[in-house]
Amino acid sequence: MASASLQFFAFILALFGVFGDIAATLLPNWKVNADVGSNIITAITQMQGLWMDCTWYSTGMFSCTLKYSILSLPVYIQAARTTMVLSCILSAFGICITTVGMKCTKLGGDADSKSHACFAGGVCFILAGIFGLVPTSWYTREIISNFLDQTIPESSKHEPGGAVYTGFISAGFLLIAGVIFCTSCFKRQQGAWIYPPKQHHFPSTEQESNAGYNLKDYV
Questions:
Q1: φ and ψ at 71, to 5 degrees?
Q2: 129, 101, 111: which is closest to 18 by C-alpha?
Q3: What is the mean pLDDT of residues 129-142?
Q4: What is the pLDDT of residues 137-182, one digit of tens each?
């Protein structure tokens, strides 16, 4: 029962991780540049994401521009796009597989099949967490290196936005959920190996009865 509750807790973490992963992939605020002019009317906030660049004016106007050209983007943005999409796909597969493999569901067949499905879902979550952690770390490193570069003007420097923090948290949730699922299945299999089911054999009794029957035939 404790293992089922732990798996359910890991499933909830994985759901938060999936939703956060998708949100981080689509949000335009991976890096933010707040440039405040001399007049409050001209105050703007510029945001750059993986798919679009947006500008928020203090007057309430909001405009976005899609990044159509892929080859013109920096390498870290291209890598972030690919790995974040892979992270979303793997985490979605993990949700489907662990739904079948969890103890609290009636899907998946016998205990061994559910254990294997649960382990496969945990591996998907771990890979999704790694794929989500790599681009956010790389993107943050690029932002910090540009911010510390003295040759770049102050108006062109950026800071990490909310999407980066969302990506970090989501990757952590997916990694924790994957480890819990894999560990719970491993414990179950290890217990089956250490304490195998007992089998009752009665060879001596059967042999004696057969021997007695054969002697009666020869009398």
A1: -70, -25
A2: 129
A3: 94
A4: 999 999 999 888 888 887 778 889 999 999 999 999 999 999 999 8
Q: For the segment 115-124, what is each residue's pLDDT rounded down to a tens digit?
A: 888 899 999 9
In a domain, 61, yes or no: no
Total Cβ atoms within 10 A of residue 172? 16
Tens digit of each residue's pLDDT (9 = 90 or more) over 80-117: 999 999 999 999 999 999 988 887 777 767 778 888 88
> Residue 98: which residues within 8 A CB-CB, separation 6 or more?
7, 10, 11, 14, 117, 118, 121, 122, 125, 181
Cα Rg for the chain, rounded, in angstroms? 29
Question: How many structural domains compose the chain?
Answer: 1
Which pLDDT does position 2 carry in this prediction?
52
- Tell me the C-alpha to C-alpha distance, in Å, between residue 95 and each of 25, 29, 117, 166, 218: 18, 27, 11, 19, 69
Is 217 among the domain residues? no
Q: Please give the C-alpha separations between residue 213 and each of 56, 201, 202, 208, 209, in angstroms, as whole numbers.
A: 97, 20, 17, 9, 6
Range of the domain at 92: 4-27+74-194
* Residue 69, helix vs strand vs coil: coil
CA distance 176 to 178: 5
- Domain-located, residue 212: no
